[in-house]
Amino acid sequence: MTDSATAAAAGQPRISLLRVLGPGHVWALGVGIVLVGEFMGWNFSVGKGGALGSLIACWVIGLLYTCVAMIDSEVTSTVAAAGGQYAQAKHIMGPLMAFNVGLYLVMAYTMLEAADALVVGDLLVVVAEEMGHSGLSSQPFVVLTIAILAWLNYRGVFMTLSVNFLITAAAFLSIIILFVGVQPWNPGAVLKHHELLTDLPYGWIGVIAAFQFGIWYYLGIEGTCQAAEEVRSPARSLPLGTMSGIITLLIAASLTWYVASGLLPWEYLGQAAVPLYDTARMTGSTLLQIFLFIGTMFAAIASANGCINDAARAWFSMGRDRYMLVFFGAVHPRYRTPYRSILFLIPIAISFAFTGLLDQVITFSILSGLLGYTFMPINMWMFRRKWPLDSIRRGYVHPFHPLPAIVLMLLCITTFFATYLGYGVQLLAMMAFYILASLWFAYHRYKYVRRGDQFTMPWPKPLGY
Amino acid sequence: MDFWDILEYAAWAISIWLLASMLIDAYRVSQDYSEDLLLSSREGELDEEDLVND
Fold it and tell me: Could you report the predicted ipTM of this complex, rounded to two decimals?
């Protein structure tokens, strides 16, 4: 009998994460993490492949993420655990894959959080300079952003994601307002696509290279899974929140590309730090500028907020399973949050942010996410093979299997190639890191893991076992 | 010293206060509750009667 069963049988009290979230919170978590990518980062795809190359990347990568959302929704609707993809891998593929996926999640979200905090700091520096104060340091505002959001996460998930819903909705609304403000029904009045759009400046290899930054439109939507242990109805809320989230992002990404490419020449757009804010400046409207400044700030804050939430839950889940120090598997008795994991990741995020290397931090976040997406089609294929559709109840069944898994794998391979074109050294460094971490886990850490406690889902034996 | 200088110092002060308050709270929780209870959560569904009420 496992320790958990012994404790339950003895009637010992236990504390758990609190089931308080609804589909709106799941949407806020997923879209909140991602939407900042519409305000900054996606435009580097224009630098790689031109404006039209960026549009191709937007929709091809949108297809990748639609497959991610569909696949994830099915598996997550049956795995009601805070570890998300980590818990999925643990049950379907095994402990070593689970350890790697857990690390992908923690690294991707912590680095994205650092990048978001950098954006907030840099925006304030820009505002200070426009108001006549030069030499403002961004560091105190980077630390303040992380400290406030960590404190919010520490105090409770309901308030954290309710706040995220409001600021994410406001950020999305700012994109809609900008779209309306450029009068899309009157081509040429504001938008100058006929003047600014060019042929592919680097040909089709440039389009492939653009895929890497096309990811920035959507990176993080899979983060909805980390809410699985805190939603009132996992089978319903997670697929609903995730699928509505990816639809929101497809709309936001398309609108973002359309307005930015219609006002900024691709040579400038491809290296701009805040492309949507710059687009608003080009309209000459102070009101639009203010809206987009607020939208950019809100998007960065919402993203950091969601990242703290998700990175902490992945680390917490690994601690609870003894893949990391069991110390991190603690739940706060009053606030019902993974408080030790939240605290532990604060200095790590601040350290990444203090490097000031926004593009490097973003690249490592993208790479970690990409590794996670490569795992997903394999995971899906094994899930359906071991537990066919009639063997366990699923809250959502994605259509056309195995087509989404095949498409996802092909797109991941293409995007790895795209990343290698521009960031080969970083890609190899990241692979070396995960290989070394895997060796540490396999030869040192795994002996502390209670193997009998790992499989927690009420599933029958897998087919063939 | 202008508005932005004051804002910088305020940002550091608020950050230190928030981080310290979380650390102090985490320490107090460790003192007031047993490690077994704090580490008692389990993956998967839980029975309501097993949950600790505040």
Answer: 0.87
